[in-house]
Design goal:
Length: about 450
């Protein structure tokens, strides 16, 4: 089937781009324009009509990309029209009436590009990441993956393992022939080197995932300590309800922030206290789970509150900042229970010391992202495949005798398969749905 979709953003705009891809693309062009095909890859002014009728929809630019030199590897056309909803609707309606044409599914253009060998899976994912990038560091990471640094590394490891596998399989096919000592030494040397390189890659503190998904900050503390007010301050808008009534927040409230180009997901959580209310107890349980999973915890307490519960003490670590709010109520005399912890004394009500808190948060962010230039892993899928690869290489390493060659070969096959699944070198049909469904329609 030939597919079509609006590839530019939805809503009213100066220009809208409708993309068509598939075997019937040339037919679509001829019927919509009533003229012959334009020169390839040259912007051409055309009148767009309703299936060749005299009833004109719009006048705009047509660009024709014959296969295989197109984004999808198929015949592809782009209709650049005025971006009103009426024009876009009329164009799509006209195309839909042409035989064997249907609306594209989410990510289907990029999926076809992958299936036709124009891009690999890593590049497909990086395109999705670039489209959804909200901060500068996310944009840079997506572009870096698009340039192929990660796929080059994964392919290099895979090719080296395949070369080792060929020697092992040769020994299996010709059991009476001994492998030369220099080849045996090279096999062990290469496999151990790759194993160590993958382990080093995995030891990256998940920076790539943090950049792509957002650095998770959990705001936790007892009721009425200022958690919701702090979230609203960081967001520069009223995200959470602020009330003097304790226990107002029952569920997690999230907001996405951009702090100096770093993507952040800040979460306001239920106040931590002993409660008999079943709903509030569930909210507190969720709050503690969110705090444990967070990259940074802002543990906020009231300066007048002498109780610093054992639960909150248990959350204090190098990934925590103790924020003591309501400094305006104590006249500079800080409770001794707080003095042994590194803390920041603020007043949300008086807007006091909040810049100091922001600088502290930014410092924590920069420390987490300090090694982002060497990141190869950006998704859990990549990480799990590499973990599986390590496990198979460890098993291969432990096989010493020639009687284990059959099992050793299988370990190598599975290791190379996991590397291949990252870039799409093997059958990955089961992955395609989950990957491309995250795209917008038209990409």
């Amino acid at each position: 089937m030939t597919i079509y979709a609006l590839s530019s953003g939805s809503g009213i705009s100066g220009i809208a781009v409708i993309r068509v891809s598939g075997k019937n693309t040339s037919t679509v062009i001829k019927k919509i324009t009533g003229t012959k095909l334009p020169p390839p890859k040259i912007a051409t002014l055309r009148k767009f009509n309703k299936n060749g009728e005299k009833n004109m929809i719009d006048e705009g630019i047509l660009i024709w990309f014959p296969a295989p030199n197109s984004y999808t590897g198929e015949d592809l056309a782009e209709f650049h029209v005025h971006g009103s909803r009426a024009v876009v609707h009329a164009m799509q309606l006209a195309i839909s009436k042409i035989k064997n044409c249907r609306l594209a599914e989410p990510g289907e253009f990029t999926k076809r590009a992958f299936q036709n060998g124009r891009i690999n899976l890593l590049k497909a994912e990086s395109i999705a990441d670039l489209i959804s990038a909200e901060t500068e560091i996310q944009r840079k990471q997506a572009l870096k993956i698009m340039r192929g640094k990660s796929s080059d590394k994964f392919n290099l490891w895979r090719e080296k393992l395949l070369k080792i596998l060929s020697h092992i399989e040769a020994k299996i096919d010709f059991p009476d022939e001994d492998l030369p000592n220099n080849i045996l030494k090279e096999i062990h040397k290469t496999s151990n080197k790759i194993l160590n390189e993958i382990k080093k890659t995995l030891d990256d503190q998940k920076v790539g995932e943090r950049i792509r998904e957002g650095f998770k900050i959990a705001i936790v503390g007892p009721p009425n300590s200022g958690k919701s007010s702090l979230l609203n301050y960081l967001s520069r808008r009223d995200v959470a309800i602020v009330s003097e009534t304790a226990g107002t927040t029952r569920d997690v409230i999230e907001t996405h922030l951009n702090l100096d180009g770093y993507p952040v997901i800040a979460s306001d959580t239920a106040g931590i206290r002993n409660s008999k209310n079943e709903i509030e107890k569930k909210g507190i349980k969720i709050a503690l789970k969110r705090a444990q999973d967070a990259d940074l915890r802002l543990i906020i307490v009231s300066a007048k509150n002498v109780e610093f519960s054992s639960v909150l003490k248990g959350l204090m670590s190098k990934n925590s900042i103790l924020v003591i709010n309501k400094s305006d109520l104590i006249k500079g005399k800080l409770n001794k229970n707080f003095k042994k912890y590194e803390n920041i004394l603020i007043s949300l009500k008086k807007n006091s010391n909040l810049n100091k808190l922001i600088l502290k948060i930014k410092s924590k962010l920069k420390n987490k992202f300090i090694s982002s230039e060497d990141i190869l892993i950006t998704r859990e899928r990549h990480r799990q495949n590499l973990i599986n690869c390590v496990q198979h290489l460890e098993r291969f390493k432990n096989k010493k005798s020639t009687s284990d060659f059959d099992k050793a070969a299988e370990d190598l096959r599975l290791a190379t398969r996991n590397l291949g699944m990252i870039v799409g070198k093997v059958d990955v049909e089961e992955l395609l749905g989950s990957i491309f469904n995250d795209f917008c329609i038209g990409k």
